[in-house]
Amino acid sequence: METATSQPPNKNPEFNEFNSSKVKKSKSPFQLAFRRFLKNKLAVMGVITLFIIVIMSFAAPLLTDHSPTKTNLLMVERPPSEEHILGTDSSGRDIWSRLLYGSRVSLTVGFSAMLFTLILGVIIGSIAGYYGGKIDNIIMRITDMVLALPFLVLTLTIISLVPKVSVPLLVTIIALTAWPNMARIIRGSFLSLREQEFVLGARAIGASDFRIIFKHLIPNAIGPIVVNATLMMATMIIIESGLSFIGMGIPQPQPTWGNMLSDAQNIRILRDHWYAWIPPGFCILVTVLAINFIGDGLRDAFDPKSDRR
Amino acid sequence: MTVLKQKKDQKADQQTIVKVENLKKYFPIKGGILKRTIGHVKAVDDVSFEIKKGETLGVVGESGSGKSTLGRMILRLLEPTEGKIVFEDQDITHLSNRKMRSLRKDMQIVFQDPFASLNSKMSIREIIEEPLLVQTSMSKKERQEKVVSLLEKVGLQPDDRVKYPHEFSGGQRQRISIARALAINPKFIIGDEPVSALDVSIQAQVLNLMKDLQDEFDLTYLFISHDLSVVRHISDRVAVMYLGRIVELASKKEIYENPLHPYTQALLSSIPTTDIDRKKEKITLSGDLPSPSNPPSGCAFRTRCPLVHERCAEERPEFNDMGEGHFVACHLFDKPSIRDEEVKQEKDMH
């Protein structure tokens, strides 16, 4: 150690070799994760499926001439025909048209409830995880309280008090009861990240709390955040369908996959008219599966340890 | 107090940049259902020293001796339990976070673990640019130029700025950390074991780089390490820590040639040597470092000291000047004159 002489810095052999080739833009960790994601066939299939479903819901007016809400009592419970591809329901409404328009509600509720939950969870979880101590304690006790509320009972109470359930109301109710999970995940990763040296380094250069949270902590916790948000969206779609199925969600005549299924509560329809309930059930299944595959793919992509290459 | 006064007289020609007085950091141990404090880990226990402008003070000690805690407290990354930190004649011990933020441009830190100290989601340009964004109002172009010049200063290529930390080796990452620390022209840099995680050959390169930069930018270092040879290479003065206390503080020459404290002697005898002719007797310390939550009474080192005697258990040794700025905290070197003075002063105060 004593004998080592001071060399001019850029004559060090350690890195000359490294940079002899022409500069090409390096891949950021996010780009690397994206590449890993693309190698996951199931996840890519999920993306394609979801994409098709989204396109179909946007293009609904182009894919059918029938109104999803117009009843025709002369054409009740008809089997599939040229005029009605999937037949008509018990009020004589075109099922294919209701399926297309119904996807809008399911996807909107799923996506916006997820987004709302994400925003609430990130804000609350960041504050608890970054500041710790008393603030953390207070926030986490509130979180425990919200988690302890029975979701279904609460939701049913609110819905039965409101004259007409709308999409924004449903989204708000779901988000206000679902944020604690997201907040806990973010708090957990922040608690471990904030002790790391790069966060101390950011504090040492005088970075503000806001900057540390958004520039250092969130990008490093993005893996669990994105994965859980995705999986949460699938759960939200199921919640909406479930509520609509039991008649507590979006009311008729507005179509959703869930309230289309409620026709199947009638044993006669369940037995004789498969075309009334198989399609919406299948749509829910495919959408939720696709989203779950995407979530799994994202988890593998963000966590290099699960990389099997 | 006497100790500090003497120290000041001795080196009055040089300006003090950092002064630490009776600094303590006790981490509470919480236990029981009610999470009450049931004890304290005394990570840093009554430490005082000064660092002169332009010098390098090395701090050595084994794991758990409070070296890193000390460094982080000086930068106010940890709040001291007690004591005083003075930076350039300004008491910064109780400065608000906002005021502290603007002061941070004068003091920086380089961390030990090159894999944990850089944000892996940021490119090298973003990492080195961040202090400039936070502390200065430079334009984008100025920042870009500064980043390039800093990369060249620490021996990296300007093209490296588009890369990400995972593309670099430990030594290169440590250079990036140094570039980040230098970005806002600090006066004082704490090296918290900056070379401990590196290979020996890379250690020398990084140490020499730090030395060169010190000359070029007139920097003051507080260099923390557990490696005596590394500290010897870079330091002007050396402080030896044991269980949260400084047991000996002297110039590099004094420490390595004339160690007084039994702990320092044991440490030095453990350095492996390649010189066959110079046979050294090795002092082996028995036992482990005692728990800092329950340090031994009196002298913290007495449980492992080969020269322990009765008095060591009874009172904590004073940190005395043995001449020429060689301080030692050991009852073997108590100067009666100084001790009497202290006692008298204390009596007067009561």
Give a topology summary.
The complex is a heterodimer of chains A (309) and B (350).
Chain A: H1 13-16, H2 29-38, H3 41-58, H4 60-63, H5 95-131, H6 133-148, H7 151-161, H8 167-193, H9 197-204, H10 209-245, H11 257-261, H12 267-272, H13 274-302
Helix pairs in contact in A: 2-13, 3-5, 3-13, 5-6, 5-8, 5-10, 6-8, 7-8, 8-10, 9-10, 10-13
Chain B: H1 2-10, E1 16-31, E2 36-52, E3 56-60, H2 67-74, E4 82-87, E5 90-91, H3 97-103, E6 107-110, H4 124-135, H5 140-153, H6 170-182, E7 188-192, H7 200-217, E8 220-225, H8 228-234, E9 237-242, E10 245-251, H9 252-257, H10 262-269, H11 310-314, E11 320-321, E12 327-328, H12 336-349
Write a structural description.
The complex is a heterodimer of chains A (309) and B (350). With 309 residues, chain A is mainly α. Chain A has a single domain (29-62, 85-306), classed as MetI-like (MetI-like fold, Orthogonal Bundle), CATH 1.10.3720.10. Chain A has 13 helices and no strands. The longest helix of chain A has 37 residues, at 95-131. Chain A is elongated, with a radius of gyration of 26 Å. Chain B is α/β, with parallel strands linked by helices and 350 residues long. Chain B has a single domain (2-349), classed as P-loop containing nucleotide triphosphate hydrolases (Rossmann fold, 3-Layer(aba) Sandwich). Chain B has twelve helices and twelve strands. The radius of gyration of chain B is 21 Å and the shape is globular. The two termini of chain B are 16 Å apart. The chains are: A mainly alpha (309), B alpha/beta (350). At the A-B interface, helix 9 and helix 10 of A face helix 3, strand 6, helix 4, helix 6 and helix 7 of B.
